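Fold this complex.
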Amino acid sequence: MATAGALAAGPTGRLFAQAGGATTLVASSSQREIWPGQVTTVLTLGDSFPSRTLRVRRWDLLDVELQNDLREPTNIHWHGLAAPPEDDGHPMDVVPAGGRRAYRFLVEEPAGTYWYHPHPDGRTASQVYRGLAGFLIVEDEAEQALGLPSGEFDLPLLLQDRRRRADGSLTYAPTPMDLMSGLLGDAGLVNGVPQSVLDVAASAYRLRLLNGSNARVMRVAFEDGRRFDVIAGDGGLLDQAIGATELWLAPGERAEVVVDFSAATLGRSVRLVSAAFSSAGPGMGMGGGAGQGAFLPLATFRVSRPGPAPRPLPARLAMPALLDPARASATRRFVMDMRMPPGAGAFTINGLSFEPDRVDVKVERGVQETWEVVNLSGEPHPFHVHGTQFQVVRRSGQALMPHERGLKDTVLVWPGETVELAIRFERHAGLYVLHCHNLEHEDAGMMLNLEVR
Ligand code: C2O
Ligand code: CU
Ligand code: CU
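Structure:
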């Protein structure tokens, strides 16, 4: 069955199969006009900013050749896929400047919105910030039989914040304050475009939302408060759609929603925003300035043409392979903490800061565990695990969010909160990592080696 190789979306958005061969992604530096009239040096993968959208079918071979034309080491991590450890893009498994390597493995995950980005130790934040991150969309037959909005009605939206500089550059130069909270920008970019305007039809759309920010947690909502249906989280479709008017998405998390623009009069616009909140957590008042929790406009949808009448969503979307939390045979605790000043060793999980040669966590393949993730610090931390998907069982702070009712690989842990997960590694034995997906925190050592045996 593994014949087609990677399917890549070209600049037109159409799919083409690379018959029997690898898709080559060249990592290089190039110039783009991001802000009108200004030239910005960015990093591209596949000659695209943001990185090229890859589409693969479940049970196909992902077959990508990375050519590193940067002047620094890089690699690719396939965020959300349980890739074999040798293809997972471990922080120490990098491609030197000028080097090449192949990533080739079977995609076993169900249809969903995954993504890829570099993961070199200490350089992830800088490389993602300058442009290296792209969608990896997995499709399968069961999903395609559902009749969800597709083609031009299926929009992957990479949500990011960037700091607008007078010269238009995306120079990565975090201040000590940025190292504490993570680098937060004052400009919202969608698919690399600030103040993006999307012309849409008066119809239903499937929006694939990915928070690809370095550090900004987003409270994604439409400015007019319109309802949408949440249909998928990190690891694919939920069992059924759940209505919502807002979603918290931390860096690394994805959610798919279906939104209906059909009732809008032609010519009307509605903004997608990250609404204001307190970085202390939901319900804790509002944030200020451009810091964590600041209001940030993302994109404007302009309803500019008539479209097909939306079809009702199927009552059942999928049967995600959920775990029964009662079947866990061990409990582990991960305590995320940080202390001042934000120098070496300040960001820790269980008191430890990343050491390449030390294996911190050893788990048995096939054995289900309960993980309690505790946040003792005053900052939100998105907890991310490589090598499997997990399930959120409960949060001490509030109810589960709609997109947390399916499989996940990244979960937001608010200050003072404990989040309980059901987790099992089934696929491959070998060395992975788990870490905070605030990329400044990750690069500062909020990451552990995890060995599956
Ligand atoms: Cu999206 Cu280990 O990362
Ligand atoms: Cu990952
Ligand atoms: Cu963190």
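The mean pLDDT is 93.
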